[in-house]
Design brief:
globular; single chain; Glutamate dehydrogenase; 7-stranded mixed β-sheet; binds nicotinamide-adenine-dinucleotide; Rossmann fold; 12 helices; alpha/beta
Protein backbone atom coordinates (compact mmCIF):
# COMPACT_ATOMS: atom_id res chain seq x y z
CA UNK A 1 0.00 0.00 0.00
CA UNK A 2 1.44 3.35 -1.02
CA UNK A 3 1.20 5.90 1.75
CA UNK A 4 1.16 9.38 0.11
CA UNK A 5 2.52 11.05 3.23
CA UNK A 6 5.51 8.71 3.38
CA UNK A 7 6.05 9.36 -0.32
CA UNK A 8 5.97 13.11 0.31
CA UNK A 9 8.51 12.81 3.13
CA UNK A 10 10.80 10.68 0.91
CA UNK A 11 10.70 13.46 -1.72
CA UNK A 12 11.50 16.05 0.96
CA UNK A 13 14.51 14.12 2.33
CA UNK A 14 15.87 13.51 -1.16
CA UNK A 15 15.77 17.19 -2.13
CA UNK A 16 17.14 18.38 1.22
CA UNK A 17 20.08 15.98 0.95
CA UNK A 18 21.06 17.16 -2.53
CA UNK A 19 20.78 20.83 -1.52
CA UNK A 20 22.59 20.31 1.83
CA UNK A 21 19.50 21.43 3.77
CA UNK A 22 18.99 18.32 5.96
CA UNK A 23 19.50 20.24 9.19
CA UNK A 24 16.91 22.84 8.30
CA UNK A 25 13.87 20.82 7.26
CA UNK A 26 12.74 19.84 10.79
CA UNK A 27 9.66 22.13 10.72
CA UNK A 28 8.59 20.59 7.40
CA UNK A 29 8.54 17.03 8.71
CA UNK A 30 5.15 17.45 10.36
CA UNK A 31 2.07 19.68 10.01
CA UNK A 32 1.69 22.68 12.32
CA UNK A 33 -1.91 21.73 13.16
CA UNK A 34 -4.30 18.85 12.47
CA UNK A 35 -8.01 19.50 12.94
CA UNK A 36 -10.52 16.63 13.01
CA UNK A 37 -14.31 16.53 13.32
CA UNK A 38 -17.29 14.22 12.95
CA UNK A 39 -19.80 16.15 10.88
CA UNK A 40 -23.40 15.32 11.81
CA UNK A 41 -25.80 15.69 8.88
CA UNK A 42 -29.56 15.11 8.95
CA UNK A 43 -30.21 13.08 5.80
CA UNK A 44 -33.31 13.38 3.62
CA UNK A 45 -34.82 10.32 5.36
CA UNK A 46 -34.64 12.13 8.73
CA UNK A 47 -31.76 10.05 10.12
CA UNK A 48 -28.54 11.66 11.38
CA UNK A 49 -25.35 10.43 9.69
CA UNK A 50 -21.80 11.27 10.73
CA UNK A 51 -18.89 11.92 8.37
CA UNK A 52 -15.21 12.15 9.30
CA UNK A 53 -13.60 15.44 8.29
CA UNK A 54 -10.10 16.88 8.41
CA UNK A 55 -8.29 20.17 7.94
CA UNK A 56 -4.50 19.99 7.99
CA UNK A 57 -2.58 23.26 8.37
CA UNK A 58 0.87 22.23 7.28
CA UNK A 59 2.97 25.35 7.13
CA UNK A 60 2.40 29.13 7.12
CA UNK A 61 5.97 30.50 7.07
CA UNK A 62 5.27 32.28 3.76
CA UNK A 63 1.62 33.30 4.28
CA UNK A 64 -1.82 31.96 5.26
CA UNK A 65 -2.39 28.22 4.92
CA UNK A 66 -3.89 27.55 1.47
CA UNK A 67 -5.41 24.45 -0.06
CA UNK A 68 -8.54 22.72 -1.30
CA UNK A 69 -11.16 20.54 0.34
CA UNK A 70 -11.63 17.04 -1.08
CA UNK A 71 -14.79 14.92 -0.82
CA UNK A 72 -13.95 11.29 -1.55
CA UNK A 73 -14.64 7.86 -0.08
CA UNK A 74 -10.89 7.10 0.10
CA UNK A 75 -9.87 10.28 1.94
CA UNK A 76 -7.51 9.53 4.85
CA UNK A 77 -5.58 11.70 7.27
CA UNK A 78 -2.28 10.68 5.66
CA UNK A 79 -3.59 11.66 2.24
CA UNK A 80 -4.63 15.11 3.49
CA UNK A 81 -1.29 15.55 5.28
CA UNK A 82 0.55 14.74 2.05
CA UNK A 83 -1.63 17.09 -0.01
CA UNK A 84 -1.15 19.93 2.51
CA UNK A 85 2.62 19.39 2.44
CA UNK A 86 2.62 19.48 -1.38
CA UNK A 87 0.64 22.74 -1.20
CA UNK A 88 3.42 24.19 0.97
CA UNK A 89 5.99 23.23 -1.66
CA UNK A 90 3.74 24.36 -4.53
CA UNK A 91 3.01 27.88 -3.28
CA UNK A 92 6.75 28.36 -2.75
CA UNK A 93 7.59 26.85 -6.17
CA UNK A 94 5.59 29.55 -7.94
CA UNK A 95 6.48 32.20 -5.36
CA UNK A 96 3.03 33.26 -4.17
CA UNK A 97 2.84 34.50 -0.55
CA UNK A 98 0.80 31.63 0.83
CA UNK A 99 1.51 28.50 2.86
CA UNK A 100 0.09 25.00 2.59
CA UNK A 101 -3.08 23.38 3.92
CA UNK A 102 -5.70 20.87 2.78
CA UNK A 103 -9.05 19.52 3.89
CA UNK A 104 -11.10 16.43 3.27
CA UNK A 105 -14.27 14.55 4.13
CA UNK A 106 -14.65 10.79 3.88
CA UNK A 107 -17.76 10.62 1.70
CA UNK A 108 -18.87 9.52 -1.74
CA UNK A 109 -20.67 12.74 -2.72
CA UNK A 110 -22.47 11.01 -5.58
CA UNK A 111 -24.58 9.29 -2.89
CA UNK A 112 -25.82 12.59 -1.41
CA UNK A 113 -28.76 14.69 -2.57
CA UNK A 114 -28.02 18.38 -3.27
CA UNK A 115 -29.62 19.29 0.08
CA UNK A 116 -27.48 16.78 1.97
CA UNK A 117 -24.37 18.04 0.17
CA UNK A 118 -25.17 21.60 1.22
CA UNK A 119 -25.72 20.56 4.85
CA UNK A 120 -22.42 18.66 4.86
CA UNK A 121 -20.53 21.63 3.39
CA UNK A 122 -21.97 24.05 5.92
CA UNK A 123 -21.22 21.59 8.76
CA UNK A 124 -17.58 21.50 7.61
CA UNK A 125 -17.29 25.27 8.07
CA UNK A 126 -19.06 25.20 11.44
CA UNK A 127 -16.58 22.59 12.68
CA UNK A 128 -13.42 24.49 11.70
CA UNK A 129 -14.30 28.17 11.18
CA UNK A 130 -12.42 29.44 14.24
CA UNK A 131 -9.18 28.34 12.58
CA UNK A 132 -10.05 29.63 9.10
CA UNK A 133 -10.12 33.14 7.64
CA UNK A 134 -8.59 35.43 5.00
CA UNK A 135 -5.35 35.87 6.93
CA UNK A 136 -5.30 32.44 8.60
CA UNK A 137 -6.29 29.62 6.29
CA UNK A 138 -7.99 29.98 2.91
CA UNK A 139 -9.67 26.82 1.51
CA UNK A 140 -10.58 26.11 -2.14
CA UNK A 141 -12.09 23.32 -4.28
CA UNK A 142 -10.43 19.97 -4.96
CA UNK A 143 -11.67 16.59 -6.14
CA UNK A 144 -15.51 16.45 -6.04
CA UNK A 145 -15.94 19.97 -4.70
CA UNK A 146 -16.88 22.94 -6.87
CA UNK A 147 -17.91 26.61 -6.93
CA UNK A 148 -21.40 25.83 -5.62
CA UNK A 149 -19.87 24.16 -2.54
CA UNK A 150 -17.48 27.10 -2.08
CA UNK A 151 -20.47 29.50 -2.22
CA UNK A 152 -22.28 27.55 0.52
CA UNK A 153 -19.14 27.51 2.65
CA UNK A 154 -18.55 31.24 2.11
CA UNK A 155 -22.13 32.00 3.12
CA UNK A 156 -21.83 29.87 6.26
CA UNK A 157 -18.57 31.56 7.26
CA UNK A 158 -20.12 35.01 6.80
CA UNK A 159 -23.09 34.03 8.96
CA UNK A 160 -20.88 32.62 11.72
CA UNK A 161 -18.50 35.59 11.77
CA UNK A 162 -21.28 38.14 11.12
CA UNK A 163 -19.13 39.80 8.44
CA UNK A 164 -18.92 39.57 4.65
CA UNK A 165 -15.44 38.10 4.05
CA UNK A 166 -15.27 36.64 0.54
CA UNK A 167 -11.46 36.26 0.84
CA UNK A 168 -12.08 33.41 3.34
CA UNK A 169 -12.38 30.89 0.49
CA UNK A 170 -11.50 30.78 -3.23
CA UNK A 171 -13.03 29.00 -6.21
CA UNK A 172 -16.39 30.69 -5.59
CA UNK A 173 -18.82 31.36 -8.44
CA UNK A 174 -18.53 34.69 -10.26
CA UNK A 175 -21.87 35.70 -8.76
CA UNK A 176 -20.42 35.38 -5.25
CA UNK A 177 -17.05 37.16 -5.67
CA UNK A 178 -15.24 34.38 -7.48
CA UNK A 179 -12.51 35.13 -10.01
CA UNK A 180 -12.57 35.03 -13.77
CA UNK A 181 -10.42 32.18 -14.98
CA UNK A 182 -10.38 30.11 -11.76
CA UNK A 183 -12.36 27.29 -13.41
CA UNK A 184 -9.69 26.65 -16.03
CA UNK A 185 -6.66 27.94 -14.07
CA UNK A 186 -5.02 24.58 -13.34
CA UNK A 187 -5.18 23.55 -16.98
CA UNK A 188 -4.09 27.03 -18.14
CA UNK A 189 -1.03 26.96 -15.87
CA UNK A 190 -0.12 23.43 -16.94
CA UNK A 191 -0.51 24.39 -20.55
CA UNK A 192 1.80 27.43 -20.23
CA UNK A 193 4.46 25.21 -18.67
CA UNK A 194 4.05 22.47 -21.28
CA UNK A 195 4.21 24.87 -24.23
CA UNK A 196 7.35 26.54 -22.88
CA UNK A 197 8.95 23.17 -22.23
CA UNK A 198 8.22 21.97 -25.77
CA UNK A 199 9.42 25.28 -27.19
CA UNK A 200 12.78 24.74 -25.50
CA UNK A 201 12.95 21.28 -27.08
CA UNK A 202 11.81 22.72 -30.45
CA UNK A 203 8.93 20.22 -30.66
CA UNK A 204 5.72 21.19 -32.51
CA UNK A 205 2.34 20.31 -30.89
CA UNK A 206 1.14 18.81 -34.18
CA UNK A 207 3.51 15.92 -33.80
CA UNK A 208 2.53 15.09 -30.23
CA UNK A 209 0.22 12.21 -29.33
CA UNK A 210 -1.42 12.55 -25.91
CA UNK A 211 -3.15 10.21 -23.45
CA UNK A 212 -5.12 11.80 -20.60
CA UNK A 213 -6.08 10.06 -17.36
CA UNK A 214 -9.02 11.83 -15.68
CA UNK A 215 -11.75 13.86 -17.35
CA UNK A 216 -12.93 16.13 -14.54
CA UNK A 217 -12.29 19.84 -14.05
CA UNK A 218 -8.57 19.60 -14.71
CA UNK A 219 -8.40 16.76 -17.26
CA UNK A 220 -11.26 17.97 -19.46
CA UNK A 221 -10.04 21.58 -19.52
CA UNK A 222 -6.55 20.43 -20.42
CA UNK A 223 -7.96 18.16 -23.15
CA UNK A 224 -9.77 21.15 -24.64
CA UNK A 225 -6.63 23.28 -24.69
CA UNK A 226 -4.53 20.50 -26.20
CA UNK A 227 -7.14 19.75 -28.86
CA UNK A 228 -7.48 23.40 -29.83
CA UNK A 229 -3.70 23.70 -30.18
CA UNK A 230 -3.39 20.74 -32.51
CA UNK A 231 -2.14 18.02 -30.15
CA UNK A 232 -3.51 14.57 -31.02
CA UNK A 233 -5.52 13.15 -28.09
CA UNK A 234 -5.40 9.40 -28.66
CA UNK A 235 -6.58 8.14 -25.25
CA UNK A 236 -8.86 9.38 -22.46
CA UNK A 237 -10.22 7.88 -19.24
CA UNK A 238 -12.45 8.70 -16.31
CA UNK A 239 -12.82 6.55 -13.19
CA UNK A 240 -15.10 3.99 -14.91
CA UNK A 241 -14.16 3.97 -18.58
CA UNK A 242 -11.27 4.46 -20.97
CA UNK A 243 -11.01 4.74 -24.74
CA UNK A 244 -8.07 4.61 -27.08
CA UNK A 245 -7.82 5.60 -30.75
CA UNK A 246 -6.42 2.56 -32.56
CA UNK A 247 -5.40 4.64 -35.59
CA UNK A 248 -3.73 7.39 -33.53
CA UNK A 249 -5.47 10.07 -35.60
CA UNK A 250 -6.75 11.86 -32.52
CA UNK A 251 -10.21 12.23 -30.97
CA UNK A 252 -12.50 15.22 -31.40
CA UNK A 253 -12.56 16.75 -27.91
CA UNK A 254 -16.01 18.29 -28.45
CA UNK A 255 -17.60 14.91 -29.09
CA UNK A 256 -16.02 13.32 -26.03
CA UNK A 257 -17.16 16.24 -23.89
CA UNK A 258 -20.69 15.91 -25.23
CA UNK A 259 -20.76 12.17 -24.59
CA UNK A 260 -19.45 12.63 -21.04
CA UNK A 261 -21.98 15.32 -20.19
CA UNK A 262 -24.90 13.33 -21.60
CA UNK A 263 -23.98 9.92 -20.26
CA UNK A 264 -21.57 10.51 -17.39
CA UNK A 265 -19.05 8.24 -19.13
CA UNK A 266 -16.90 8.52 -22.20
CA UNK A 267 -17.34 5.21 -24.03
CA UNK A 268 -21.01 5.15 -25.08
CA UNK A 269 -20.10 4.64 -28.68
CA UNK A 270 -20.75 0.96 -28.07
CA UNK A 271 -24.41 1.83 -27.93
CA UNK A 272 -24.20 2.70 -31.62
CA UNK A 273 -25.67 6.15 -31.46
CA UNK A 274 -25.04 7.24 -35.03
CA UNK A 275 -23.66 10.66 -34.15
CA UNK A 276 -21.22 9.41 -31.54
CA UNK A 277 -19.96 6.56 -33.64
CA UNK A 278 -17.94 9.09 -35.53
CA UNK A 279 -15.46 8.31 -32.78
CA UNK A 280 -13.73 5.07 -33.61
CA UNK A 281 -12.17 3.66 -30.51
CA UNK A 282 -11.16 0.60 -28.62
CA UNK A 283 -12.20 0.04 -25.02
CA UNK A 284 -9.72 -0.25 -22.25
CA UNK A 285 -9.85 -0.75 -18.51
CA UNK A 286 -9.19 2.67 -16.90
CA UNK A 287 -6.20 1.25 -14.99
CA UNK A 288 -4.50 0.49 -18.31
CA UNK A 289 -4.72 3.99 -19.76
CA UNK A 290 -1.39 5.07 -18.25
CA UNK A 291 0.38 2.19 -19.99
CA UNK A 292 -0.54 3.26 -23.52
CA UNK A 293 2.13 4.23 -25.99
CA UNK A 294 2.17 8.03 -26.58
CA UNK A 295 4.44 11.07 -26.59
CA UNK A 296 2.77 12.77 -23.64
CA UNK A 297 0.84 11.25 -20.74
CA UNK A 298 -1.27 13.73 -18.76
CA UNK A 299 -2.18 12.51 -15.27
CA UNK A 300 -5.29 14.33 -14.05
CA UNK A 301 -7.01 11.91 -11.67
CA UNK A 302 -5.65 10.90 -8.25
CA UNK A 303 -2.43 9.98 -6.46
CA UNK A 304 -0.48 6.70 -6.76
CA UNK A 305 -1.32 5.95 -10.40
CA UNK A 306 2.24 5.05 -11.45
CA UNK A 307 3.93 2.84 -8.87
CA UNK A 308 6.69 0.23 -8.80
CA UNK A 309 4.06 -2.30 -9.96
CA UNK A 310 3.29 -0.70 -13.34
CA UNK A 311 6.23 1.62 -14.01
CA UNK A 312 8.02 -0.94 -16.18
CA UNK A 313 5.03 -0.86 -18.55
CA UNK A 314 4.96 2.94 -19.00
CA UNK A 315 5.62 3.80 -22.66
CA UNK A 316 5.03 7.57 -22.68
CA UNK A 317 8.04 9.73 -23.53
CA UNK A 318 7.00 12.55 -21.24
CA UNK A 319 4.55 12.94 -18.33
CA UNK A 320 2.67 16.03 -17.17
CA UNK A 321 1.38 15.70 -13.60
CA UNK A 322 -1.78 17.75 -13.22
CA UNK A 323 -3.03 15.50 -10.40
CA UNK A 324 -1.30 15.70 -7.03
CA UNK A 325 1.11 12.90 -6.21
CA UNK A 326 0.25 10.52 -9.09
CA UNK A 327 3.76 8.99 -9.21
CA UNK A 328 5.42 7.30 -6.21
CA UNK A 329 9.12 7.98 -5.43
CA UNK A 330 10.16 4.45 -6.48
CA UNK A 331 8.41 4.85 -9.83
CA UNK A 332 9.93 8.31 -10.20
CA UNK A 333 13.39 6.82 -9.91
CA UNK A 334 12.65 4.23 -12.61
CA UNK A 335 11.19 6.87 -14.95
CA UNK A 336 14.35 8.95 -14.50
CA UNK A 337 16.48 5.91 -15.39
CA UNK A 338 14.28 5.27 -18.44
CA UNK A 339 14.83 8.89 -19.51
CA UNK A 340 11.12 9.73 -19.27
CA UNK A 341 10.73 13.41 -18.33
CA UNK A 342 8.19 14.19 -15.61
CA UNK A 343 6.90 17.77 -15.26
CA UNK A 344 5.95 17.56 -11.59
CA UNK A 345 2.66 18.40 -9.89
CA UNK A 346 4.08 21.16 -7.68
CA UNK A 347 4.83 23.09 -10.87
CA UNK A 348 2.44 21.69 -13.50
CA UNK A 349 -0.79 22.15 -11.51
CA UNK A 350 0.22 25.31 -9.61
CA UNK A 351 -1.92 27.49 -11.90
CA UNK A 352 -4.90 26.54 -9.72
CA UNK A 353 -3.49 27.90 -6.49
CA UNK A 354 -1.98 30.90 -8.27
CA UNK A 355 -5.36 32.02 -9.60
CA UNK A 356 -6.85 31.21 -6.19
CA UNK A 357 -4.33 33.67 -4.80
CA UNK A 358 -5.45 36.20 -7.45
CA UNK A 359 -9.06 35.68 -6.30
CA UNK A 360 -8.01 36.24 -2.67
CA UNK A 361 -6.21 39.45 -3.65
CA UNK A 362 -9.16 40.75 -5.66
CA UNK A 363 -11.47 40.05 -2.70
CA UNK A 364 -9.10 41.73 -0.23
CA UNK A 365 -8.79 44.83 -2.44
CA UNK A 366 -12.41 44.75 -3.67
CA UNK A 367 -11.24 44.53 -7.29
CA UNK A 368 -12.39 42.58 -10.34
CA UNK A 369 -9.81 41.44 -12.85
CA UNK A 370 -10.76 40.27 -16.35
CA UNK A 371 -9.90 36.80 -17.65
CA UNK A 372 -7.33 38.38 -19.96
CA UNK A 373 -5.69 40.14 -16.98
CA UNK A 374 -5.62 36.87 -15.03
CA UNK A 375 -3.93 34.96 -17.88
CA UNK A 376 -1.48 37.81 -18.42
CA UNK A 377 -0.41 37.62 -14.78
CA UNK A 378 -0.42 33.81 -14.63
CA UNK A 379 1.77 33.10 -17.66
CA UNK A 380 5.01 34.79 -16.49
CA UNK A 381 4.69 33.22 -13.02
CA UNK A 382 4.49 29.71 -14.50
CA UNK A 383 7.27 30.26 -17.04
CA UNK A 384 9.58 31.89 -14.51
CA UNK A 385 9.09 28.96 -12.13
CA UNK A 386 9.82 26.45 -14.93
CA UNK A 387 13.02 28.26 -15.92
CA UNK A 388 14.23 28.49 -12.31
CA UNK A 389 13.58 24.79 -11.76
CA UNK A 390 15.11 23.75 -15.06
CA UNK A 391 18.28 25.62 -14.13
CA UNK A 392 18.53 23.80 -10.79
CA UNK A 393 17.83 20.45 -12.49
CA UNK A 394 20.63 21.03 -14.99
CA UNK A 395 23.05 22.23 -12.30
CA UNK A 396 22.62 19.16 -10.07
CA UNK A 397 21.71 16.75 -12.93
CA UNK A 398 18.47 15.83 -11.21
CA UNK A 399 14.80 15.39 -12.12
CA UNK A 400 12.47 18.40 -12.25
CA UNK A 401 10.54 17.34 -9.12
CA UNK A 402 13.62 17.30 -6.92
CA UNK A 403 14.70 20.60 -8.48
CA UNK A 404 11.28 22.14 -7.71
CA UNK A 405 11.55 20.95 -4.11
CA UNK A 406 15.01 22.52 -3.78
CA UNK A 407 13.73 25.79 -5.21
CA UNK A 408 10.78 25.74 -2.79
CA UNK A 409 12.81 24.73 0.27
CA UNK A 410 15.13 27.66 -0.27
CA UNK A 411 12.10 29.98 -0.21
CA UNK A 412 10.43 28.41 2.82
CA UNK A 413 13.51 28.04 4.99
CA UNK A 414 14.74 31.56 4.20
CA UNK A 415 11.71 33.03 5.96
P1 LIG B 1 -12.57 16.16 -10.50
O1 LIG B 1 -13.32 15.53 -9.38
O2 LIG B 1 -13.21 17.27 -11.27
O3 LIG B 1 -12.08 15.05 -11.56
C1 LIG B 1 -11.35 13.91 -11.25
C2 LIG B 1 -11.39 13.01 -12.47
O4 LIG B 1 -10.58 11.87 -12.25
C3 LIG B 1 -12.77 12.49 -12.82
O5 LIG B 1 -12.93 12.49 -14.22
C4 LIG B 1 -12.74 11.05 -12.32
O6 LIG B 1 -13.66 10.23 -13.01
C5 LIG B 1 -11.31 10.72 -12.63
N1 LIG B 1 -10.77 9.56 -11.91
C6 LIG B 1 -10.85 9.29 -10.59
N2 LIG B 1 -10.22 8.13 -10.34
C7 LIG B 1 -9.73 7.70 -11.53
C8 LIG B 1 -9.00 6.58 -11.94
N3 LIG B 1 -8.63 5.66 -11.07
N4 LIG B 1 -8.69 6.45 -13.26
C9 LIG B 1 -9.06 7.38 -14.16
N5 LIG B 1 -9.75 8.47 -13.81
C10 LIG B 1 -10.09 8.62 -12.54
O7 LIG B 1 -11.18 16.65 -9.85
P2 LIG B 1 -10.16 17.71 -10.42
O8 LIG B 1 -10.42 19.01 -9.74
O9 LIG B 1 -10.14 17.61 -11.90
O10 LIG B 1 -8.80 17.14 -9.80
C11 LIG B 1 -8.03 16.13 -10.45
C12 LIG B 1 -6.63 16.13 -9.84
O11 LIG B 1 -6.04 17.43 -10.01
C13 LIG B 1 -6.57 15.87 -8.34
O12 LIG B 1 -5.40 15.15 -8.04
C14 LIG B 1 -6.50 17.25 -7.73
O13 LIG B 1 -5.91 17.25 -6.44
C15 LIG B 1 -5.61 17.92 -8.75
N6 LIG B 1 -5.69 19.38 -8.74
C16 LIG B 1 -6.86 20.01 -8.95
C17 LIG B 1 -6.88 21.40 -8.96
C18 LIG B 1 -8.14 22.16 -9.28
O14 LIG B 1 -8.03 23.37 -9.50
N7 LIG B 1 -9.28 21.53 -9.36
C19 LIG B 1 -5.72 22.13 -8.72
C20 LIG B 1 -4.51 21.45 -8.51
C21 LIG B 1 -4.53 20.07 -8.54
Amino acid sequence: MNNPYQNAMTQLEKAAKIAGLQNKIGPLKKPMRILKANLAVRMDDGKIKKFKAFRVQYNNFRGPFKGGIRYHAQVSLDEIKALSFWMTIKTATVGIPMGGGKGGVIIDPKKLSPMELEKLSRAYVRAFYKYLGPNLDVPAPDVNTNSQIMDWMSDEFNKLTKKNQPAFITGKSLEFDGSQGRDTATADGGFFVLKEFLKQLKISPKKITVVIQGFGNVGANMAEKLYQSGFKIIGVSDSQTAIIDPKKKGFNYNLIKEIKSHHGRIDVCVRHEAKYCKIVHNHLSPQKIVEQSCDLLVLAALENQITKDNVSRIKAKMILELANGPITPKADQTLWQKNITVIPDVLANAGGVTVSYFEWRQNMKKENWSRAQILKKLKPIMIKALKRIDKIAKKYKIDLRTAAFISALRQIIKK
